[in-house]
Amino acid sequence: MKTRLKHIGQIPGSIIYTGEKMTAESIVQMIDYNEKEYKEKRVEDFRECTKFLRNWVKWIDFIGVDQTNDLEEIGKIFDLHPLTLEDIANIQQRPKIEDMDDYIFLSLKMFSYNNEIRELKEEQISLILWSKYIISFQENEQSDDFHKIKERIIKGKGRIRKMKSDYLLYSIVDAIVDNYFVVLEQIENQVEDLQDELLTNPTSVILNKIQNLKQNLIILRKSIWPVREIIGTMERTDSDLIEDSLQTYLRDLYDHTVQIIDTIETFRDIIAGSLDIYLSSISNRTNEIMKVLTIMSAIFIPLTFLAGVYGMNFKYMPELDQKRTYPMLWIIMVVTAGAMLLYFKKKKWIGK
C-alpha cells in the first residue's frame, strides 16, 4: 500500500475531512450539473453523494486512495464489488476495464515528466461509471487536466453540460490520453538533445541518459498499450451505460491512442539506434587509439633494434672507433622512421 500523503491543500468545492467518518487526508469534491446550471457541494458524509437530482449528472472526485477505511465505506454505500475496491487500492494495477453489469470500472495511468531530473512519475486513476454519475479515484490531486474539465462544466463550455455521464467519462479519459502527448513531447526534446550530444561528445554520461530514456519508454509502453484495449472494449460494448452517440468520440480517442503507441515505438527504435551509435563511437575511438599506438610501435621497432645493437657492451665493435658512427646512426634512424611514415601514408593508414 502506498504511504499516506503528507499534505494536500484545499480546493474550491471540496473539504478535507477531520471527523470520525472521514480520514484526515481524504479530499472529496462533488459536482452536479445539467445543461442550464451546476452545483458544487462540500460533502459531510459519503451518503450525501447518493442524493441525486433528476436529470442531473453527478461527478464525485475522491482524492487519496490510500485511505482504506474510506474506500470500504464507499464500497458499502455504492455497493461496489470487493474486487473493484481491491483494484482501486492497488496502485500498481495494470490498466483495465470491467463491465460489472450495474457499473463499468476503468483503471488508467496518469504520467508527469520532470525535465530537470529526467524522472517519469505515474499515478493511477480509477473511474466508475453509472447511468447518471461517475466516481473518480486519484492518488494525488491533479493540478491541470481534471481542473480543465471542471472549468468547462462550471463555465458551460463545449457540449459537456449537454451530454450524459458517459460523455463525462470520455472527457476524463480524453484528458488522460492528451496528457500522454505532453509527456511524449517532453521526452522527444530529451531524445533530440541526446542525438546532438551523441554525435559531438559520446561519453559514459550519455549511456546513463540512454538507459534512463529506455526505461521510461518501457514504463509508458506497458501502461499505454492496454488503453487501446480499454477504448476498443468501450466501442464494442453492448452496455446501456455507453450510448451509441459516443462511438464517434471513442473512435477519435482510439486513433489518438494508436498515434501515441506508434510514437513510443518510434522513440524506442531511436533509443535502440542511439545505443548502437554510442557503442560504435566508443569502438571507433578505441580503434583510432589502437591504430596510433600500433603505428608508433611499428616505427620504433627498427629504431629499438638499432639502439639495442649498438648498446651492447662488446669489446670488438669496429664502428665504435669511427668518428662518424654516432651521427650516421642518427641519420639511419631518422631515414628509417621517415620512410615508414611515407609508406603508411601511401597505404592511407594515416593522414585520413
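(the above was protein one; protein two follows)
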Amino acid sequence: MKSFWKAFYYDGRTAERHEVEISLSPEALCVKKDGKEALWRLDEVDQTQGFNKGEPVRLEKGGEALIINDAEFVVSLYSMAPAHAARFKRPDRMGRGVLLISLSAFLTIAIGLGVYFWAIPAMVRVATANIPPSVEDRLGRSYVSGLTGMVPQCTSPEIIDSTDRILKKLESAVPGHPYDFKLYVLKNETVNAFAAPGGHIVLLSGLIEATESPEELAGVMAHEMQHVLKKHSTQAIFKDLSTGVLFSFAFGDLQGLSGAVRTMEGLRYGRNLEEEADKKGMELLVRAGIDPEGMVGFFEYLWECECKKEKKDKKASVLEYLSTHPATENRVEYLKKNLGSVSPRNYEPLLPGVDWERVKNSCSGGPPGGKEKQDEEAQKTDEVDT
C-alpha cells in the first residue's frame, strides 16, 4: 500500500493550483507543500468528487480543496482510517449502485404501490449521486434548448459582458469543479432565474432589471451555481420525472430522459436544498470577494413583495421567482443569520465604473426602473383602489 500521493491543492481564494504531497494517518491527512505541513482532520473533510471509476478524487475542507488523480487513494483511506470510512465512497464499488437501481426499479413494478413510495425516492438519491457530469450537461442542454427556442436571448453587449464578468469572478472561487458553466440571458419581463444540470444558468431580463446593484445579481447567480455544484438541479429533475422515464434511465435509455426534461415547466427545490444553496452561495460570494449584503437585500425585497402580493397585483412577475424560490420570513432571517456569521471586511465594488441602471435596462431598451419603479406603480394601484 502506498504511503504518499501526489495531489493538487486549491486555497479557495484564487484559481491557482499547487502541487502537494499527502499522506494518511487514522485521524487526519497530512498535506506537505514547500517543506511545510498542514493537517486535515478526516471528520472535517468532505468528498465531493471521485465516485465514478476513472474520476479524480476531490476532497474539501471549508473553502480549500485537494484533487487526487489516483483513485486507489480512497481504497487506502479505508484501510488506514476505518473509523472514518463511512464518510468516503470508493469508486471501485460504484458499479454496484447501477445494479441496485435496476433491481429497485424491477421490484417496484413487481410488488406494487406500497414499495413504489419507498423505492422511487431511494432510486433518485442513488442516481443523482452517481450520475456523471457529462450526462448532467446533456440534461441541462436539453432543458435550456427548449427555452431558448421559445424565448429570445438578450443581445445587449453591456449585459452579456457584465454577467460574464460576474460569472468568472464567482467561478474563480470554486476552482477544480467538473462543470463548464454557461450563462443564458433571455428577454422576458418575469423576475426569475434558475439553474439546469451541468452548469447551465438562465437569467430572465426582468430579474436583472429588478436588481439595484451587480452585487444583488451576483447573490442570485451564486445561489443558482450552488444548485448545480450540489446537484440540486439534477435531483429536482429526477424527482419530477414519471416512473417510466426513471426506469428508462435505470436501464440506460437517456434519449427518453432528455425528451421528458424538455417538457418540464420549472425546477423546484425543497426548503433544505434552498437553505443549503443560500448558505453555500453566501460562502461563495465571500470567497470571491463580493459583498454578501447584496444577496440578503435582494431576497429581502422578494419577501416584501410576497407580503404585499394580495394588494399589489403589478408585482405578479416578481412572485414568479417566489414560486420556485420561496422567500419565507424564516428564510430571510436565515440569510441574515448567515450574514452575521461572516467576518466584517471592506469589499471592493464588483463592477467599478459601470452604470448599473443603464446596463440592467439595456436588454429591454426601457428607462431605468428596477425596484423603485415597481414600488411607484404599486402605489398608484393602491391609490386607484382606494
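Reviewer note on protein two: The chain has 16 helices and ten strands.
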